[in-house]
């Protein structure tokens, strides 16, 4: 691989994105590390001269478009795109403001699409490229209270599946990765953005949240949650592979839930999830 082959990683200031940027830079890629937190990106860039920090708020359509124009007109095209940036807000659908759902889609889906559009012309010119889209196990099924976030990941799955057909004739690979639960700041940020749902929800939903909370505590009671290195190493494997698969999954609940979703009927899986999440038989 040539020293100057260029990669772009979004959400690179923490978690999976940060570890992926590190690994790619160690392998000699020139890595554009994109995230909101400038200080963290600069700290990451000090680790390896192959990392170029690019502070950017993907939810800001104006600055996002400026960045995409830079990508379109850059003399060295991006060869590897890792669409990793994303966040979550939780709650039953009645409790999640529509503005918050729109914000989820802006970052998790629309920014992913726009950055991909900006990188594709350069990849087409070279007749090669790799696009890795970070979905989730919830890209195939939602947990209760994660409907809006899961909807963004369902959409990422659809975009990836269509794009894979569209660009394969140009030598461009599109790979979807479905992490299970990973130990990053993602959960902490989701809790912060969600706030205290229990204090502001309608009393009707309080027993639901209680039952669901107890069910999830039981579900997670014997689970060892891996760090972001698990997924970052998988991404590196995909990028360096001559013939990567279309989809990979790794982490907790991949076997117990994702595999079941892919094999059970809708009704069967609904009942399984009701049991796993403590909601089976709940009547309010």
Radius of gyration based on Cα positions = 19 Å
CATH H-level superfamily title = NAD(P)-binding Rossmann-like Domain
Count of distinct strands: 7
List the secondary-structure elements in sequence, H or E.
Answer: EHEHEHEHEHEHHHHEHH
Going across the biggest sheet, name each strand in turn: 3-2-1-4-5-6-7
Mean pLDDT equals 94
CATH architecture: 3-Layer(aba) Sandwich
Please write the CATH class name. Alpha Beta
Instruction: Give me the number of helical elements.
Output: 11
Characterize the biggest β-sheet.
Answer: 7 strands, parallel
Q: Please give the alpha-carbon distance between the first and last residues.
A: 60 Å
CATH topology description: Rossmann fold
**Proportion in β-strands:** 5-15%
In terms of per-residue confidence, which ranges show pLDDT below 50 for 5 or more consecutive residues? Answer: none
How many independent structural domains?
Answer: 1
Query: What overall form do the CA principal axes indicate?
Result: globular
Structural class: alpha/beta
- The percentage helix is 40-55%
Care to describe what's here?
Strands 3-2-1-4-5-6-7 form a seven-stranded parallel β-sheet, sandwiched between helices. The chain is built from eleven helices and seven strands. The chain has 284 residues and is of the alpha/beta class. It has helices spanning 15-26, 38-45, 61-73, 98-126, 147-167, 186-194, 197-200, 206-220, 229-240, 254-263, 266-276, and strands at 6-10, 30-35, 51-55, 80-83, 129-134, 172-179, 247-250. Helix 1 (15-26) packs across helix 9 (229-240). Strand 1, helix 1 and strand 2 form a beta-alpha-beta unit. The termini are far apart. It has a single domain (6-201, 225-255), classed as NAD(P)-binding Rossmann-like Domain (Rossmann fold). The longest helix has 29 residues, at 98-126.
